[in-house]
Design brief:
about 500 residues, alpha/beta, GMP Synthetase, Chain A, domain 3, 3 domains, eleven-stranded mixed sheet, 17 helices, about 20% strand, disordered N terminus, GH3_C
């Protein structure tokens, strides 16, 4: 049987192996020019005079001065809303045929993110680049790349509107639009992939698991782990390699992998290679290109122009909202170990768009970064500046210290006895003393976050914990209609979401 690596790949792709080619500033300038030229006759391009920007000596600065920063509500209400009515040439040439439905982790209603043919083409190229990069990994089992790919994602059975466009999970759109030659290697196949009921989909995968020779799995860690656990239980196995001996590569994204790694590796019979990618509804932002890299490398030459807003009090308020005079820097101005919110301009008609992620560069020369959290998913009641990255690290160390698995957690902050407090909700089915676990997490956070340590000695008077079965977290997601591979449990609870969580814990309803 032929394998995916026997397919003749485009020559331009085969040249790319993990180091930025040339000057990334020049690459980014070229990307910006290409985007502006393509969109200059759209409504957006005409309003913000893309033709004039293209004539500027400093095209990046002219672009920043002319085009405002957009969050979803701003760009949707002013621009994207028109495209849902079938209006063409709004922010990108032509009509929008697909929309990725995205609600992040806190918003109640779905966002409609345009997905153009140009974006799908860019994503396909980046998928192939990522696949090729794995061949440079010394520890990768090359045999696994000749086997089938299991992609655990959203339903490919998309919703069709009366205007002719389709909407659904991004993973479903990508699966539906993958090249014809890929279908030979793709599992679980079209019929199962189209299923909307997440439990039904998992059960179907389990039933067919013994018929497949899986070498490569792609998906969000929590749902891939759940699927493998179900397979192991169904066939009375010791580990997943007893049924898929060639499984050697796991491509993951969407959430930090550290909290899941220990419980994930319990399911394995031998080591595998982990490849993190940074794929959002708005575009394929980056992936781990070097075998032992600590972070993912930005894709700087494929139709995404990046800007970065320092995530500090000069640019964001205490709730993570962008301030009116926020300033963005370019890729040649970034600093290592500094936190930024990321802006994208893409070939799907997103312009200076705040996607809500915060990142930190580990290596500016290679443009390697890690995702540290979300602009609105952090705790800083009194200046403790507790990021999701801090929380993930504390959970990972707790997993190792107590030899337990904590697949999910969330944290909230509240006034307490004239001061303030945090409360952790921890999902684990393993036995552990709650107070010992809380003390360990608290001490770990003090050791890695000076601001947290300072505030714990003053205004942040106490920390509480409640340990719950993992099933509780899954049930909450199910009741919110967010059970599935595209949805992530919020790491920080605030506002209406916190009220729903409190009601759920007390009544079982939301």
């Amino acid at each position: 049987m032929a394998s995916i690596i026997d397919i003749k790949l485009p020559g331009t792709i085969a040249k790319v192996f993990g180091l930025p080619n040339g000057d990334v500033s020049r690459q980014q300038r070229k990307v910006l020019k290409k985007l502006l030229k393509k969109a200059r006759f759209t409504e957006f391009g005409q309003k913000y005079e893309f033709d004039k920007i293209l004539l500027s000596k400093d095209i990046e600065r002219a672009y920043q001065q002319s085009v405002p920063i957009h969050d979803y509500n701003k760009i949707y209400n002013e621009w994207w809303k028109k495209t849902l009515d079938g209006v063409p040439d709004v922010t990108w040439p032509g009509k929008i045929e697909y929309y990725a439905l995205s609600s992040g982790t806190s918003e109640a209603s779905s966002k409609y993110i345009p997905v153009t043919k140009d974006l799908l083409r860019s994503n396909t190229i980046n998928y192939l680049k990522q696949l090729i990069s794995v061949f440079t990994y010394q520890e990768a089992n090359k045999k696994s790349l000749r086997k089938s790919f299991l992609i655990i994602g959203g339903a490919t059975d998309l919703q069709k509107s009366d205007k002719g466009w389709y909407a659904g999970d991004l993973s479903g759109i990508l699966a539906k639009k993958r090249p014809f030659w890929f279908q030979t290697f793709y599992k679980p196949g079209g019929r199962i992939a189209a299923l909307r009921d997440w439990n039904e989909k998992l059960n179907e995968i389990v039933e067919h698991a013994r018929d497949w020779d899986i070498g490569y799995i792609v998906g969000v860690p929590a749902w891939c782990q759940m699927c493998m656990e179900m397979i192991i239980e169904r066939y009375n196995l010791k580990n997943i390699h007893e049924i898929w001996p060639n499984f050697g590569v796991f491509v993951h994204g969407g959430v930090a992998f550290q909290p899941y790694k220990k419980s994930f590796e319990r399911l394995l019979g031998k080591p595998i290679v982990y490849v993190e990618n940074y794929l959002s509804s708005e575009g394929f932002i980056g992936y781990k290109m070097r075998e032992h890299a600590q972070g993912m490398q930005l894709i700087t030459d494929n139709n995404i122009f990046f800007e970065f807003i320092p995530f500090d009090s000069n640019n964001f308020d205490a709730d993570g909202n962008l301030l009116p005079n926020a300033k963005a820097v370019l890729i040649n101005e970034i600093e290592e170990e500094k936190e930024y919110a990321i802006l994208l301009s893409t070939n799907a008609g997103t312009w200076r768009y705040l996607i809500g992620d915060t990142i930190r560069f580990l290596d500016t020369r290679r443009c390697e970064l890690i995702i540290t959290g979300r602009t609105k998913h952090f705790l800083s009641l009194v200046g403790e500046h507790l990021s999701v990255e801090n929380m993930n690290r504390a959970i990972e160390e707790a997993n190792n210290h107590f030899n337990i698995s904590i697949p999910e957690y969330t944290v909230t902050g509240f006034p307490y006895k004239n001061y303030f407090a945090h409360k952790w909700y921890i999902a684990t089915d393993d036995p552990v003393d709650p107070q010992e676990l809380l003390t360990f997490i608290d001490n770990t956070l003090k050791s890695i976050n000076d601001d947290y340590a300072t505030e714990r000695a003053s205004a942040l008077k106490d920390v509480f914990i409640e340990i719950l079965p993992e099933e509780k977290f899954l049930k909450f997601m199910e009741l919110r209609g967010k059970l599935g591979s595209q949805n992530k449990f919020p790491r920080v609870m605030k506002g209406n979401l916190l009220q729903s969580w409190d009601k759920f814990l007390s009544t079982g309803k939301i």
